[in-house]
Write a structure and sequence with these properties.
Number of domains: 1
Strand order of the largest sheet: 2-3-1-4
Largest sheet: 4 strands, antiparallel
Shape: globular
Number of helices: 7
CATH architecture: 2-Layer Sandwich
Structural class: alpha+beta
Oligomer: single chain
Order of helices and strands: EHHEHHEHHEH
């Protein structure tokens, strides 16, 4: 099973609604390591870099206005199949359609204000981590409970 890293952003709506602690707790309780974490403001320039594939689309101005409206919490999660597991934990993009038990299913009711961003694949994760974190901001460490989270043959 591949150990992966992924970037997650708690978007302005999650920060404003004071859900950050509850969301971070879910990820840690699942057994995944947070190896980088910071609160920051996304600037228009940073938004254009992150969402480069969407800049020319008609919805982009609304996306940029939303992501720059208030602070976000950016963090890197590491663990087995981190990308797909985090995306499953997030739930469907539209909170009204997301399954109960997922972050969006439990806390969301909007398609646009959907609380959390997660990288959608290994290439995106590597690119996004580099956008938001310098190598010095990534804290690698051994998790003492790791042997109790996953069988050695998995």
């Amino acid at each position: 099973m591949a150990t992966e890293r992924t970037l997650l952003l708690l978007k302005p709506d999650a920060v404003q609604r004071r859900l950050a602690g509850r969301i971070l707790t879910r990820i840690e309780e699942k057994g995944y390591k947070i190896i980088g974490l910071k609160m920051m403001r996304v600037t228009p320039e940073l938004a254009r870099k992150h969402y480069a594939e969407h800049v020319e689309k008609p919805f982009y101005p609304h996306l940029e206005a939303f992501i720059t409206a208030a602070p976000v919490i950016a963090f890197i999660v590491e663990g087995p199949d981190a990308i797909s597991v985090m995306r499953s934990m997030m739930g469907s993009t539209n909170g009204r359609e997301a399954a109960p038990g997922t972050i969006r299913g439990d806390f969301g009711s909007s398609r646009q204000m959907n609380l959390i961003h997660g990288s959608d694949g290994p290439d995106a994760a590597a690119r996004e981590i580099e956008i938001y974190f310098s190598p010095e901001e990534i804290c690698e460490y051994n998790l003492d409970l790791a042997p109790w989270m996953l069988a050695s043959d998995e």
